[in-house]
Here is the input.
Amino acid sequence: MTVRVDLAAEAGKLVTDLVTEPWGRVSPSVYETSRLVTLAPWLIGHAERVDYLLDVQRADGGWGGPGGYALVPTLGATEALLTEAGRWGSGGRLAEAIDRGLRLLFTWSAASYPFPIPDMPAIELIVASLVERLDRHLGGLCADLEAPLARWHGARLAPPARAGLSRLARYRESLAARPALPEKMLHALEVAGEAVAGLGVRPTSIGSVGASPAATAAWLAVQPAIEPSDTARRHLESVVRRHGGPVPCGMPVTVFERGWVLSSLVRAGIRPQIPEEVLWSLGAASGHAGTAAGPGLPADADTTAVALYSLSLLGMPYEPAGLWAYEVDTHFCTWQGEEGVSPTVNAHVLDAFGMYVSGSAEPRGRYRAAIGKVSDWLREQQSPEGAWSDRWHASPYYATACCALALAEFGGARSAGAVRRAADWVMATQRPDGSWGTWSGTVEETAYAVQTLAMTDPSPDARRGRAAERGREYIRARLDSPDDTPLWHDKDLYAPPAIIRAAALAALHAGGRNSPSNPL
Here is the structure.
């Protein structure tokens, strides 16, 4: 039986929620929650945070996603529970959870961490700082704890090779020589340790530091006194109340959520009524340095490009001149000084430049040259199988959809082969139940796969059409109860529910029988 979906109503509600929940919606983070357990035990919801860490521990003793995605959450949760045991004593469920976490960590360490370490923000420094704290616990606190924890007294955990303690020490030493801490470092302020006190950091007007609960808690932890009226404390309390105790990686993420939701919907042909408040919040991207995902974060090319692209789709084009600040020799960086590279950022830059050029008869030579350069670079990043991968998302289906859609629309005839290979890869990796997914089938990844098939080739293709329709059936059946598997990269994997739902609605509409006026 085909599930009926009223796309007009669903899209309208999604856009309304952008106003009623202006900070955005992000899933809880084991890592960020663990830092609040350690750094802010006085904060409301402390018991709920401890319970959350205990409740989401995996059967193998770890926390978080598979493989290397479990490293930071497992280190963070184990350290936080050890801190809690040192405050109140260990026993029962708490001691068992710590023991299981330590056993897994030392198993990984003995095997030299038998998984790749994912490319996530500040991961080497975060891992080193957590190993440092764990070793401190094991060298002292555990001597007085009950079994089974006493046996861990004096043990020392070796960090992965790329996350050595010497690198953390050099980073902290370098902080003292800086006249001001770069904004991009504020998001992981907690790794600075005691050095936070001398950095002259101040919260934003809404009380956040680096748009991160952990960074905000680290700043509060070195203040001589914390009054109930303190803006940073009140900010954390607001975040805690939104999630019932646990906290997400980033908050607020206003522009990020609004840009991705609107670009997904409108690109697919869904045009709900957009409140002026939402439109003008995206207008910040037209500034000389672009815009940030939310207050407390540095401006970045990704958020800027998506916001500008969304505004162009909605009939409010701005010249994307702010993106020139992120141009490097062969591509565009997420922000100045970025160590990695991101195909999806460049796909979004291609979208923004392509819309700007296509909307004008003027030559705009510099933009056209950049479109060619970015298109060339994106084609070079494609895997032999036809997929792309990216540093901001765990799934190649997200990166492949971003790159294939941008190249299909703005990459010219030279990109046709790359786009076709992307669709062929998507076709070849569909699961028997009609879904797509990296670890298991998910609504989010199925939505990206359907978009790749339905929105990159104007000519009809029966095989593509059947595969896309099977994917849509999978999405329809689960739209009201998606798993929201965390796949997005921050300091921990996270899921942005509104963005995922927008991607799903776009897939249902694009190239299929769905339309806002004719729901299935």
Confidence is low (pLDDT under 50) at residues 513-520. DSSP finds 19 helices and two strands in the chain.
